[in-house]
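cron nightly-structures :: item 1 of 1
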Amino acid sequence: MFQLSPLAFVHPNAKIGDNVTIMAFAFIDDNVEIGEGCVIGPHVSIRSGAKIGKNNKFYDGCVISAQPQDFRWKGDDSYVEIGDNNCIREHVIINRSIHKGQSTKIGSNSFIMAQSHIGHDTEIGSYVVLGNASKIAGSCKIGNCTILSSNALVHENCNVGEWVLIKGGCRVNNNVPPYTIMAHNPIEYFGVNAYVLRKGKMSEETIDEIAKAYRHIYQSQTSPFNAVKRIESDVMDSPEKEAILNFVKKHNYQLAALPKDIYEE
C-alpha cells in the first residue's frame, strides 16, 4: 500500500510500489513506475515515461520526465530512468530522451540540488552531487562521484569523467577527464581533485601519479596526442592511469581547458 493525499492525482495506470508517500497537489501521469519507499513532495509532477527506483525523495515542484526542450523531438515515447536512494530537491527539471524508446538516466545515491536542470539523453552516474541551479544540456555524461558546484553549466555533448570537481559558475564547453578540478571562465585546469580522492581512500602515491599525468596534458605545452605518449612511458601503471588514457583517446583528444593552438603538432 502507499500513502496518497486526497489532493494529489495518480493516473489509474501508474505503477506505485509499497510504502510510497504522495503528498498534496502531486501529479503522477500514465506510463509511470515508482519503486517502493519513494516520497513524492507537494506539487511534484512525474510525467509519462518515468521509471523510478526505490527510496528516492522528490521535493516541492520537481518535474520528472518532462517533454524534451529540443526541436528534434517529434513526440515519440521515451523515458527517464532513475536508480535508488537519490535526493532530488526543489524545482529540479529532468527531460526525457528525444529518441524513441531511449532514456535520460540518473544513477543511484546522488544529490541533485534545487533548480537544477538535466537535459534530454544525458546520463548522470552514481554518488554525484549537482549544486544549486546547475544546468546540464542534452546528450551529456557525468561520471560517478563527480561534483558540479552551484551554477555550473555543461554544454551539449560534453562528457565529464569520474571524481571530477567543477567549481561554481564554471562553463564546461568540452570533455573533462577524470580526477580533475576545473574552474573559472573561460574554463581552466585547476589541479587534481586530491581532497575528494583521499576521502575515497585513494593512496598518496596514486594521487601523485595522477598529478604527473595531468602535468603532461595541461602544463607541458604540448599536444594531447604527445601528452598521451609521455603518460604511457612516464606514469606508473594503475587503473587510474588507464582511465585517464582511455578517456582522452575515446574523446579523440578533445579536452576542456586546452588552448586551441595546443592541438597543432
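cron nightly-structures :: done
The chain has a mean pLDDT of 96.
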